[in-house]
Amino acid sequence: MALPLLSGTAHAEDCYIAVPPPPVDTSEVPLPGQPVPEPVPVPETPVGGEQLGGCGPAFPVYAPAPPAEISAASWLVADLDTGAVLAAHEPHARHRPASTIKVLTALVALRDLQLDDTLVATQEDANQEGSRVGLAPGATYTVREVLTGLILRSGNDAAHALAMKLGGVEATVDKMNALAKSLGALDTRAATPSGLDGPGMSTSAYDLAVIFRVAMQNPAFAEIVSTHQAFLPGAPGGPPLEVWSDNQVLRAYPGGLGGKTGFTDDARHTYIGAADRGGRRLVAVLMRGENQPVRLSAQTMRLLDYGFELNGAPVGELVTASPAPIADVQPVDQSVQAQSEDPMFGTVGGPLALLAAAAAAVVAAIAVQRRRAALARRRRSGGDDHP
């Protein structure tokens, strides 16, 4: 079953269903000679269910209202195992992901690289803007170690190092976007592996929940994201680099499983947090939030509490499927073709795989005329939402 696409901008002025909010800086101005990307097409039918497509909240009948402290423009709470969306607020509104997109970067690396593959950090890695884990030029790291720095400390240096191992920044972004499309994450277009704002960057709370759910089915990712402390190689001849998780849900919330933080001037604060309570695993995703009236990590915890209390019918579902082969992105060497030693997507699939494949085919086949986004920015980043 194909998903038709709209050429209009339904509800765009209300809750940014078509394009993210206007930028505040110049970080998305394309390089000279490069076109401004057209907005990602909007599915005619909201992925995951009709209740997820509007502007405003969606929660079960007779359920209590969502927590009043939530300032995020868009959010979603879902069951990691069943995929049931328990409650949401404008989950398909398009916003910039900031460093939460690193979960998608990690998925590509886990698919295309072996965890014990090695790379040597470069000065270019170390010079990346924004948050860095501290990769030392000339030091050798395993892919697992670099992924640890990517997830625990949101290292843009780690994102760049992985991208170069995967064939370069442009090739990695292409792989990220192909994977997102194959998963049915149709609001998503990555512009950078790190989450630094770039031309056409877009995702949604719904898509990030889909991507994170798939990532948590990979044992290596689930282990890394739940790690509180790790030691990475330091500079040649120097002491090890101590790394702590920056995710407050992991550190302070009972049953916390980890997640991902993010911040740029244009994205504002973004957050993914997951937790287990009595064998029930939930994920909360918040986008375009502010640390008012409480920090976004605290807002995430409020939403997790709210989700664990809900027992009504779900308002939608996370539609995920195993990714189709990516034939249009060629690795530069044989090492890029190596597969992860862990199964990436578990047993999700079956009929949903047909849905995602059909959706991807429609997205690729239909040229939709859309208004151009007001993109006039240069790349600029802020630090992640460290507790």
Automatic annotation (TrEMBL):
Tell me which domain of life the UniProt entry assigns to the organism this sequence originates from.
Bacteria
**Gene3D superfamilies given for it?**
DD-peptidase/beta-lactamase superfamily (3.40.710.10)
Segments passing through the bilayer: 344-368
- Where's the Peptidase S11 D-alanyl-D-alanine carboxypeptidase A N-terminal domain? 66-289
| UniProt binding sites for substrate | K260
Q: Quick check: keyword Ribonucleoprotein in the entry?
A: no
Q: Which UniProt keywords apply?
A: Carboxypeptidase, Cell shape, Cell wall biogenesis/degradation, Hydrolase, Membrane, Peptidoglycan synthesis, Protease, Signal, Transmembrane, Transmembrane helix
Q: Where is the active site?
A: S99, K102, S154
InterPro entries to which the protein is assigned, alphabetical: Beta-lactam/transpept-like, Peptidase_S11, Peptidase_S11_N
* Pfam families associated with the record: Peptidase_S11
What's one GO MF term for it? serine-type D-Ala-D-Ala carboxypeptidase activity
* Membrane keyword on record: yes
- Family recorded in the similarity comment: Belongs to the peptidase S11 family.
Provide the protein name.
D-alanyl-D-alanine carboxypeptidase (Penicillin-binding protein 5/6)
Q: Which organism is it from?
A: Saccharopolyspora kobensis
